[in-house]
């Protein structure tokens, strides 16, 4: 895409990363958090936590005409959320003690549909594109960037997970990813309205 540049994020990108990561939550995030406002608040807080796997240090941004329009979080680890005192404090602030109790079964349902990242895979943990800029090749450009990084680091496999309802699956398939595992769960469906999640891989 003409005028699109992809670069590593810097601290000043944090607010925009938070906006793209959490500002337009999908059915899964809303279902797990309980409502849209809590999903946005928790996702935004995750990005801003020091040393967060969703923070600027772990993010690559796509920039068009000086504006960040997409983000990529990917690498040799799965960028898994780690339970830390700061994360617990964030959850307490957003959900409250009683809210945390109701959150736990939702999180357990989410865990049941999450496939294990294949050993030795370059894992694409997150791709988000500004809704106003979708279907313009930005997501594909970020996937190409991730693949180039994976090849440069001699990875033989890439992986990602996505919900069974995510239309971005077609983008991933066009870029050579294929579904190798699908996990479903009735409680997850009850909370989110989504059957489950796919694990997709691409051999390099």
Description:
This protein is α+β, with helices and mostly antiparallel strands. It has one domain: Aminopeptidase (3-Layer(aba) Sandwich). It is built from 7 helices and 7 strands. A 7-stranded mixed β-sheet has the order 1-2-3-4-5-7-6, sandwiched between helices. Strand 4 (122-129), helix 5 (138-152) and strand 5 form a beta-alpha-beta unit. Helix 2 (27-33) crosses helix 3 (36-48) and helix 3 (36-48) crosses helix 4 (85-112). The mean pLDDT is 93.
Please describe the structure with a list of short key phrases separated by commas or semicolons.
7 strands, Aminopeptidase, single chain, 24% strand, globular, alpha+beta, 204 residues
Dominant shape? globular
User: Mean pLDDT, as a whole number?
Assistant: 93
CATH superfamily: Gcn5-related N-acetyltransferase (GNAT)
In the CATH hierarchy, the architecture is 3-Layer(aba) Sandwich
In total, the number of domains comes to 1
Largest sheet at a glance? 7 strands, mixed
- Radius of gyration over all CA atoms, rounded: 17 Å
The spatial strand order of the largest sheet comes to 1-2-3-4-5-7-6
Oligomer: single chain
Name of the level-1 CATH class: Alpha Beta
Binned strand content: 15-25%
- The number of helical elements comes to 7
Helix- and strand-based class? alpha+beta
The total strand number stands at 7
Spell the H/E element sequence: EHHHEEHEHEHEHE
